[in-house]
Amino acid sequence: MKISEAIEKAEKAGTNRGIRQTTKWEDLRIVPTDTDKCCLVYEGDKLLSSRWNPKKEDLVADDWTLA
Fold it and tell me: What is the pLDDT along the chain (67 residues), one digit of tens a residue?
C-alpha cells in the first residue's frame, strides 16, 4: 500500500504501531508524529532516530505495511 494508506491504518491501530517498507526494513518501524520530532525510527522498542528523512523512492513506494 502507499505510505499515506499505511499511516492511516497505523493511526487506527493505536499508538506507536508504526509502518515499514516490506522490501527495505524487516526489523525497523517508522512512527510518524505531528511533533517537531517528525518520524521516529525504532528497532524493537529501541529508538534509533527521531528525524527520519524519506527519499523520493520511499514516498512513492507501494510496499508499505503496518509494523
Answer: 999 999 999 999 886 789 999 988 888 999 999 888 889 999 988 999 998 989 999 999 999 999 9
Complete DSSP assignment for 13-46: H-TT--EEETTT-SSEEEEE-SSTT-EEEEETTE
Residue 14 exposed, middle or buried by CB count within 10 Å (0-12, 13-18, 19+): exposed
What distance in Å separates the CA atoms of residue 44 and residue 55, rounded to the nearest whole number?
Answer: 23
Q: Are 62 and 51 in contact (CB under 8 A)?
A: no
Alpha-carbon dihedral 49, 17, 67, 40, rounded to 10 degrees: -10
